[in-house]
């Protein structure tokens, strides 16, 4: 039986600072990932929101499943800051998560600081070119 290439959903089973971002992806833990990321206490996951310009609660299902482990969510909105929708803010408030939208660069820097401080932080990072 010949073994073919197996493509799995991107997942790093741990917490790691983001070493670099840009060119449509991120570097962390001596690896690189093309596309957006969801950094949670359970690990770092490849993340493909349905519409990065209009994030919805459905894009954050995995995060909401881990809400008990998250106090702060940093949402890297790409190059430009965009507000979170009232629907999304309500979902985070109900889960007792403080959500802060910012540019992806600012979210990466803040995530790394809060991670080093061992805070209960998560980040949803939209990739930038």
From TrEMBL:
<dbReference type="InterPro" id="IPR036748">
    <property type="entry name" value="MTH938-like_sf"/>
</dbReference>
<protein>
    <recommendedName>
        <fullName>Mth938-like domain-containing protein</fullName>
    </recommendedName>
</protein>
<dbReference type="InterPro" id="IPR007523">
    <property type="entry name" value="NDUFAF3/AAMDC"/>
</dbReference>
<dbReference type="Pfam" id="PF04430">
    <property type="entry name" value="DUF498"/>
</dbReference>
């Amino acid at each position: 039986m010949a073994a073919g290439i197996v493509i799995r959903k991107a997942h790093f089973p741990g917490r790691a600072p983001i070493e670099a971002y840009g060119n449509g992806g991120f570097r962390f833990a001596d690896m690189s990932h093309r596309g957006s990321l969801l950094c949670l206490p359970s690990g770092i996951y490849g993340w493909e929101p349905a519409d990065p310009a209009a994030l919805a609660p459905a894009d954050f299902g995995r995060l909401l499943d881990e809400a008990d482990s998250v106090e702060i969510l940093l949402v890297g909105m790409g190059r430009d800051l965009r507000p979170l929708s009232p629907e999304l803010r309500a979902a985070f408030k109900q889960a007792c998560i403080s959500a802060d939208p910012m540019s992806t660069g600012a979210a990466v820097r803040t995530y790394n600081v809060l991670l080093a401080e061992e805070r209960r932080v998560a980040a949803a990072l939209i990739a930038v070119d």
